[in-house]
Design brief:
This protein has one domain (about 15-145, about 180-230): Undecaprenyl pyrophosphate synthetase. Helices cover about 45% and strands about 15% of the residues. It is built from nine helices and six strands, in the order αβααβααβαβααββα. It has a six-stranded parallel sheet with strand order 3-4-2-1-5-6, sandwiched between helices.
């Protein structure tokens, strides 16, 4: 067994889908006397790295909470900067994702995003759709309750009677249909709540909170979270 295979089997502790709430870019910047936007820039470069760390551990789906439906309340300058970062990920970084055989998906209310970004999303999803090594999923303009509302609206259009509405039929209409539910959700920066992230899908997910701000999260921190998940599974496993 190669080292890589070995890593795959040992290091992910059976995690197929990992969700991360990347919190604390602004706090990190303040602590270091840097502008807010520099915190976001650092957070963005880490988001690119963590995809590789997860791939190397054989995690199939990584969902990053990048921008919530509430984040529009931030300053125009900050929102514009974040939109620019997403655009970069969907254009300049696309070749790299393709080279690594990674599929990119975006979940959220995409029609509420700037038109140019919508076009880039459409293109990135199309260009990478046949890649098989893993899925990098960005939650942009995402809200967990909004997602459930959107799913129910779809269902009501299609279901002829209320009895046709089941947990399965709702799951199929979510942005994440055909994906495994997240096994583990990590939130950085000390807040101990999920803020609606994958609200339906995370009903049984293990939650892991760390005080570290997102820009300081390391590969070792990831392994600690995965090991903690492994310990919990063995203690409380079905």
């Amino acid at each position: 067994m190669s080292h890589h295979e070995d890593m795959k089997n040992v290091a992910n502790h059976g995690i197929k889908h990992l969700g991360i709430i990347m919190d604390g870019n602004r706090r990190w910047a303040r602590q270091h006397g840097l502008p807010t936007l520099e915190g976001h820039r650092r957070g963005y470069s880490l988001a690119k790295k963590i995809g590789d760390w997860c791939l190397n551990r054989g995690i199939e789906v990584l969902t990053l909470f990048a921008f919530s439906t509430e984040n529009w309340n931030r300053s125009k300058k900050e929102v514009k900067y974040l939109m620019g970062l997403f655009e970069m990920m969907l254009t300049k970084d696309l070749d790299e994702l393709n080279r690594k055989n990674i599929r990119l998906t975006v979940i959220g209310r995409i029609t509420g995003l700037p038109l140019r970004l919508q076009k880039h999303i459409e293109n990135a999803v199309e260009v990478t759709k046949n890649n098989t090594r893993g899925t990098l999923q960005l939650a942009i303009n995402y809200g967990g309750r909004a997602e459930i509302v959107d799913a129910v609206k779809q269902l009501v259009k299609e279901a002829r009677s209320a009895s046709k509405i089941t947990e399965e039929s709702i799951s199929e209409k979510l942005y994440t249909s055909h994906q495994p539910d997240p096994d583990l959700i990590i939130r950085t920066s000390g807040e101990q709540r999920t803020s609606g992230f994958l609200a339906w899908q995370a009903a049984y997910s293990e939650l892991y909170f760390t005080k570290k701000h997102w820009p300081e999260f390391t590969e070792r921190d990831l392994d600690e979270a995965l090991s903690e998940y492994g310990r919990r599974q063995r203690r409380f496993g079905k």
